[in-house]
Amino acid sequence: MGQITLENVAKSFGEVEVIPPLDLTIEDGEFVVFVGPSGCGKSTLLRLIAGLEDVSGGKIVIDGSDATQASPAKRGLAMVFQSYALYPHMSVRKNIAFPMKMAGIDEAEQKRRIDSAAKALNLTDYLDRRPGQLSGGQRQRVAIGRAIVREPAAFLFDEPLSNLDAALRVGMRLEISELHNRLKTTMIYVTHDQVEAMTMADKIVVLQAGRIEQVGSPLELYRNPRNVFVAGFIGSPKMNLFTGAAAVEYGAETIGVRPEHVSVSADSGKWKGRIGVSEHLGSDSFFYVEDTGLADAVTVRADGEVAFRHGDEIWLTPAEDKIHRFDKNGDRM
Amino acid sequence: MATQRAHKAARLMISPSVILLLAWMIIPLGTTIYFSFLRYNILTPPASWTGFENYYYFLTDPAFIPALVNTLVLVLGVLAITTIGGILLALLLNMEFWGQGIVRILVISPFFVMPTVSALVWKNMFMNPVNGLFAHLFRAFGLQPVDFLSTLPLLSITIMVAWAWLPFATLILLTALQSLDSEQMEAAEMDGAGWLSRFIYLTLPHLTRSITVVVLIQTIFLLAVFAEIYVTTAGGPGYASTNIPFLIYNLSLKQFDAGMGAAGGVIAVIIANIVAFFLMRAVGKNLEL
Amino acid sequence: MARQTTTGQRALVTAVAWGIGILISFPIIWTVLTSFKTEATAIASPPVWFSFDWTLQNYIDVNTRSDYARYFMNSVVISIGSTLLGLAVAIPAAWSMAFQPTKNTKNVLMWMLSTKMMPAVGVLVPVYMGLRSMGLLDSRTALVIIMMLMNLPIIVWMLFTYFREIPGEILEAARMDGANLRNEIIYVLTPMTVPGIASTLLLNVILAWNEAFWTLNLTTTNAAPLTAFIASFSSPQGLFYAKLSAASTMAIAPILILGWFSQKQLVRGLTFGAVK
Ligand SMILES: Nc1ncnc2c1ncn2[C@@H]1O[C@H](COP(=O)(O)OP(=O)(O)OP(=O)(O)O)[C@@H](O)[C@H]1O
Ligand SMILES: [Mg+2]
């Protein structure tokens, strides 16, 4: 079990309100990702759930019982920290055993769980090493192992992959997803990498300045961003946002169109511009089109074979049914 | 709530240290200030109020000006020797050579010698005009041995104290030197900077903070030099090697004039606080929480 | 810098460095050598370097004649006692300041440092009189307490700088793993802080061992430690070089050895963490 409900949960540090009262329900077995710009309160929200910070108001309910005042240890949650937070003076085996030792689980059961976690995480050969003798990816796996053996109601991850290099990050991302498929335990995962958010989540929670901007599945957010902020935040490269005449034409304050929903042509189209920077990745080409009168640069994604270069004149045409319209408050129309 | 309880516990854990230090600061210091306004001879107790008389007598005591000058000469002399010597030694020890570990131990050892031992060893075995090593050395060159402690008492004490503090300066500057980014040095070399300009424009600025710390911390200790004088010259001949601490000791525990000793103590505290002010600023800057 | 130096350069640097190293530590080397000479050889002109009849007689004499053991024990009790007492008071303080910093933490630390700046001589009179009226002059108790107060700021600071290096996330991890405060201290905090505490202990034993203002002024015989013992060689006994050397060697040897082990911590401790 691992259903977590936040009711009116708020947090202030002294005078500063970091998280205004918010409600959120996380269903059992869900993989929920918190995304948002740096400093928006993702870690704080996670730590409130973990019990590492006290709420300034509201209620945290875990599996139907009020856990607002419960100590971290009593909440039955496991956390994987960004810095891994392994105990440097203990071997890998002891690190993984620590939460079980604290819970008073008997030795035989401890051994069984360590062995099975080590096998699942490819750590069998490293059990007697110290954390200092492991690579970043291995340390990450130990931290996950330490979380798994507790058989928690939910896993909390705070940017667990941000200290790894790009290739390892992709590998670990898959491992964590697999782990979730296998264990079916609730996971709450904080990141500001939106690729991680899109690929791993069942449900994404977009935060800004401590407020929840939108909650939904990755494709929901991609297709129907509720406001300009979510529109700009989800999707890579970012959605193009235009104001002024181009928006008025559609009867909106702001319109947005994703780079992949603009087609290019050498001789005809809706908007005319000149290519500033062009990036040819092989599979795709990205063009940053200037002098369109819409915005400083319009990002366009085209097929890898399209051969425009710097300085070329280019015509752009948005896919009319993929245009997002937003009103004066930035909300979707 | 959990973290609020933790804060209360935190305050509880800090208070013994704070209370002890507060008591250690306020009670004796308050008493010193109180005594400094009394005519108070330790041997013939009843004390009487005299106002600022003790300060007047202390500041006009024939020993005061010499003691103040001696204190300054001692502090500045030792500082000059130890910082310049320390920089040179640190540069040397930072080079590659065989037996670095042992040489390091040799260089820092004097710091661990208790002041009374170092003072007596220097006084008797080195500076003694008859049997001291310096006397042997002078005679070997056909020179007249010098009676260091009678003719050059302040210089002799400066040497003893500098010997004890040179390792401290060296060790700290060496530590700082080792944290100098070697890529920065290489970049400067690529830019065509010679040995001297690299020292002036990179090494010295890098060492500035450590030098400041060395100077300030040593100053605190050097203002309080006592044992070296106590076991060698006893402040003499005349007042030639009396510094402020020794003068106060003399007034209070030798001449039993607690009032005047206390007035001197207040003045010593004021002098130390002026230095402390700068030290705190230097240390405080590095304390990010 | 990281460049390969030629063997020739290296040999030259080696010679210079060793020369200077020996010169600087020469008074210590000379004292140790002299302690094994007879009084006559000790003042021989020209000085004798190594080719003399080595004798332990001076050590025996110093021990039998002057009750060296008592001074030594006083030094041990005062330096170790004051340090342990200081640690007991300082560990909780440093711990909470490092792991539960508040707005005031920095100010408290700076203030503690400032008490270290107070010159001892400024409070000599009241401390002396106070102890005299309590009958605590020349007592180990008084010296243990005063030495503890002298070094408390350094102890707090050193511990603080060590504790602060322990990432807070590790303690949070322990809390998440179900450790209560007691288990957190036993299984996580203590093993990680022991090295820092040991260095702090070492440095403060050294400082207390060598302290020579309060020990000289507040003791006469009963509680006198080695600093005072050596001071009694001031004159004319000091002219017996071999015995002075033997006594000096015994007084500095233990601390010299401890000191060699604590080089690195020394820098941190004495600069209040400003240089690491
Ligand atoms: N202990 C604290 N005291 C005061 N303010 C805090 C504290 N912890 C966090 N904050 C503030 O709360 C806000 C949210 O911080 P939080 O760490 O939750 O951001 P985040 O979304 O995790 O950012 P990042 O992506 O950079 O990790 C920030 O403005 C931060 O400065
Ligand atoms: Mg964060």
Write structural notes for this entry.
The complex is a heterotrimer of chains A (333), B (289) and C (276). Chain A is an alpha+beta fold. Chain A folds into 2 domains: 4-230, 3-Layer(aba) Sandwich (Rossmann fold); 238-326, Beta Barrel (OB fold (Dihydrolipoamide Acetyltransferase, E2P)). Chain A has 9 helices and 18 strands. Chain A has helices at residues 42-50, 92-103, 107-120, 136-148, 166-183, 194-200, 218-223, 228-233, 245-248, and strands spanning 4-13, 16-26, 31-35, 57-62, 65-66, 77-80, 154-158, 186-190, 203-208, 211-216, 240-243, 254-257, 262-265, 271-280, 284-290, 298-303, 313-318, 324-326. In chain A, the strands form 4 sheets. A 6-stranded mixed sheet of chain A has the order 6-7-8-3-9-10, with helices on both faces. In chain A, strands 13-17-14-15-16 form a 5-stranded antiparallel sheet, with no helix packed on it. Chain A has a 4-stranded antiparallel sheet with strand order 2-1-4-5, covered by helices on one side. The longest helix of chain A is centred in the middle third of the chain and has 18 residues, at 166-183. Chain B is mostly helical and 289 residues long. The longest helix of chain B is centred in the first third of the chain and has 34 residues, at 2-35. Chain B is globular. The mean pLDDT of chain B is 85. Chain C is mostly helical. Chain C has a domain at 66-232: Orthogonal Bundle (MetI-like fold). Helix content of chain C is 72%, strand content 0%. In chain C, helix 4 (57-66) packs across helix 13 (241-261), helix 5 (68-99) crosses helix 10 (181-210) and helix 9 (168-176) packs antiparallel against helix 10. Chains B and C meet through helix 1, helix 3, helix 4, helix 5 and helix 6 of B and helix 1, helix 2, helix 5, helix 6 and helix 7 of C.
Q: If strands are numbered along the chain, what order do they take across the biggest sheet of chain A?
A: 6-7-8-3-9-10
> Low-confidence spans of chain B: pLDDT under 50, at least 5 residues?
none
Order of helices and strands of chain A: EEEHEEEHHHEHEHEEHHEHEEEEEEE
Separation, N- and C-terminal Cα atoms of chain A: 39 Å
Biggest sheet statistics of chain A = 6 strands, mixed
The strand order across the widest sheet of chain B is 1-2
Count of DSSP H/I helices of chain B: 13
Q: Which chain pair has the greatest contact? A: B-C, 111 and 100 residues
Small molecules held by this entry: adenosine-5'-triphosphate, magnesium ion
What integer value in Å does the Rg of chain B equal? 24 Å
SSE succession of chain B: HEEHHHHHHHHHHHH
Task: Please state the oligomeric state of the protein chains shown.
Answer: heterotrimer
CATH superfamily name of the largest domain in chain A?
Answer: P-loop containing nucleotide triphosphate hydrolases
CATH secondary-structure class of the domain at 64-241 in chain B:
Mainly Alpha
Say what the CATH topology of the largest domain in chain A is.
Rossmann fold
Question: How much helix, percentage-wise, in residues of chain B?
Answer: over 70%
Q: Number of DSSP strands of chain A?
A: 18
- Determine the fraction of residues in helical runs of chain A and give it as a percent range: 25-40%
Transmembrane segments (chain C): 12-33, 71-96, 108-129, 141-163, 184-209, 240-261
Domain ABC transmembrane type-1 (chain C): 72-262
InterPro entries (chain C): BP-dep_ABC_trans_perm (IPR050901), MetI-like (IPR000515), MetI-like_sf (IPR035906)
Organism (chain C): Paracoccus alkanivorans
